[in-house]
Amino acid sequence: MKAVVWHAVGDIRLTDVPEPKIQEPYDAIVRITTSAICGTDLHFVRGTMPGMREGRILGHEAVGVVEEVGPGVRNFRPGDRVVVPSTVACGTCSYCRAGYYAQCDNAHPGGPQAGTVFFGGPEAAGGLDGLQAEYGRVPYAHVGLVPLPDTVDDAQAILLSDIYPTAWFGAELAEISGGDTVAVVGAGPVGQAVIACARLQGAGRIIVVDGLADRLELARRQHAETVDFNAEDPVEAVRDLTGGIGVDRVVDAVGVDAQRPSHGPAADALREQTEQFDHERDEAAPEQKPDGDTWVVGDAPSLAARWSVRMVAKAGSIGTVGVYPPQVQHYPFGEAFMKNLTLKMGNCNHRRHVPHLVSKVASGRLDPTPLITHWAQTQDAITAYEAFDRREPGWTKVALSVDERGAVAPGMGESAGTGSATTAGTNTATTNE
Ligand SMILES: NC(=O)c1ccc[n+]([C@@H]2O[C@H](COP(=O)([O-])OP(=O)(O)OC[C@H]3O[C@@H](n4cnc5c(N)ncnc54)[C@H](O)[C@@H]3O)[C@@H](O)[C@H]2O)c1
Ligand SMILES: [Zn+2]
Ligand SMILES: [Zn+2]
């Protein structure tokens, strides 16, 4: 089968690989109809999440059809349509049973302390092959697959694999409650989805910070207030917009590949910290293989964190879902301490959130589709990766159409890229689930 394969930092290829087989009783094989490229995948190719094995299939977002199940999987059969949550969890240990699926005690071959397991990541993330392929092996499939009703098509469901659960989780980490003023740092796919989830969780005002005009425009179409960090100092802008107080909550949806502003007052203000950021960048990415303007490592790993701590109000809270891998050692801890901030962070417990998000989509409360700005065919996956990596205008979220039959149901997908109507503009301020 064809799959997107990691060969080295700066080197991914579409490669012919063997089809996966059932290895354990709780495995399933899923024939993938739609996959997607995530900002997390970029960290592996840029070098900011080291430890990948050559030959690893990339990707942790997929919708597909169950092809085969192991004898332990009693709740799915071949032919069932499913979405695959990005992290892998046993469903049995005390962590899983408390909803902390990303901290499962059993999924990692390295034992309970070895960390979160997800598809298509470094060896430290369990060494599992990913889902940008024609077929995927899903361990603990009785827990790791979520069934899809026919009314939720691939274009909607693919965003429920990782992006919306992460956004929902991030908004919860930030402790958003009714009427709060929320800043979303980063307007990539995750940040865009945070706008919708924060609103569903009751946010009163949402301010989005990024440096890319097209992504800020998508945010504006969701009726977020936007701040361009290449035009204004984002901390000052947020303070101005909040009567000098700052926002109640921040969601950091950027992570380790944060960039410095290229111009404007914020760029001027940071000039003295050039050496500090260079040092942080080299610590974050010991190996870098940029190719012109592709696969360039973020040049200010702690900047989104620094801005988050500064733009939040005293005694406010920050939910961090942008990824910071273990080698990252810089966080403005003292500033956060002095402001009595609450900091929560981590890998999404996908399996906890995918089912309720599927029902929100099925019931029409949430339409994630507008976030997909590009559909690429498998044969064009590498070109699509490069355009997404360079953040070319319009390349906000790339779905991979692996199998034509699954891609977009008739009549659906027309709102792709419009960014509008993601939550029908409503502030429903209801329960958290
Ligand atoms: N915690 C989890 O479980 C989880 C799950 C999925 C994704 N993620 C992470 O979320 C992050 C975002 O993912 P994505 O797919 O949206 O990626 P992305 O790379 O497309 O988006 C990042 C956005 O941040 C913006 N940005 C860069 N520097 C900035 C700065 N200094 N201030 C504000 N914005 C800045 C970029 O312009 C871009 O729009 C990544 O780190 C990804 O690994 C985490
Ligand atoms: Zn992801
Ligand atoms: Zn578990």
From TrEMBL:
Needed co-factor(s): Zn(2+)
Residue ranges with Basic and acidic residues bias: 276-292
Signal sequence range: none
Gene3D superfamilies attached to this UniProt entry: Medium-chain alcohol dehydrogenases, catalytic domain, NAD(P)-binding Rossmann-like Domain
Keywords noted in UniProt: Metal-binding, Oxidoreductase, Zinc
Region (Disordered): 276-296, 409-433
Biased composition (Low complexity): 413-433
Listed EC numbers: 1.1.1.-
Keyword hit for Metal-binding: yes
Domain Enoyl reductase (ER) per the UniProt entry, residue ranges: 7-400
Keyword Secreted: no
InterPro entries according to UniProt: ADH-like_C, ADH-like_N, ADH_Zn_CS, ER, GroES-like_sf, NAD(P)-bd_dom_sf
GO molecular function, one term: oxidoreductase activity
Family classification: Belongs to the zinc-containing alcohol dehydrogenase family.
Name of the featured protein: Zinc-dependent alcohol dehydrogenase
